[in-house]
User: What shape does this take?
Amino acid sequence: MLKVGVFGVGHLGKYHLNNWKEIPEVSIVGFFDPNNDNAKEVEKTYGLKRFMDEEALIAACDIIDIVTPTQHHFPVCEMAIKMGKNVFVEKPMANTIEEGKAIVNMVKEANVKLQVGHVERFNPAYTALKNASLNPLFIEVHRLAQFNPRGTEVSVIFDLMIHDIDIILSIVKSDIKNISASGVAVLTDTPDIANVRIEFNNGCVANLTSSRISMKKMRKIRLFQKDAYIGIDFLEKNTEIIKLKKPEDTDAFSFDIETHQGTKTISIANPVIEEGNAIKAELSSFVHAIINNETPVVSEIDGFLAMEVAHQILEKISKSTSMLKQGPDASFSDPMPLED
Assistant: This one.
């Protein structure tokens, strides 16, 4: 049985504790959290040992689960990896590109497993497409949330949009050609709403909009590809596929339409959405990757690529904001292509 230690038992950390308890291959050794209120509540509710020494908790475990604020991800990752422990770390993997690169190198050198908490990869609405052929030419994303002070120590890019960046990078098998972005800080010191356009070398274009000051919640991705449209609603957990019908499509509603090329049959299918807990699924997946010596579903490489794109987006927003502050006479140059 693998022993787990949790760093950070705030709002999300408690969700992790609840789900670790339901995974039969692990046992929770204890937790570390400098917040006395959080610690007392967890000690009372879960009956877990509070460790006051970070190294002592890491030494007692096989898996370290890092659910701390982002600025603390790297030091805990570094300590755990150097002690030869497997690490699950919430997104974003680290606070800076340099920290992310260091984590990638340390994981390779230590030969341990690391998974990043991009939980939408385990959303039933997304996993329902595991057998579908996804080759989008255009992607439209909306992720909107009502304002919540929790998590605002980072921009909306790292708070919300990074989920969709990771999903898009996992779907589009191509390098990025160019990024353009704009964003506005409304209630915090960092962008609270942002719109981003990502162009890929294979011709695919992704438009992403994220806001944490919306009146309603929305978490949708729409994929447009040759002969098909796929809609994924992460919030309502449903998925829709509309495409030109093929002879093997027998389980979908269909109807005929007249086009200049003649009659075409359109099929509408809603893949079966399995009941599931995405947080439990991602933690269980990591445990099985360790036991079976497999690459985690969201590896340190995946986590680094997502945060790298997120940082590039923030740089674009910062540049455009700076130009706007200079006034109407400021000249805007064409977006610079990303380095290979």
Summary: The chain has a mean pLDDT of 90. The chain has two domains: 2-112, 122-277.
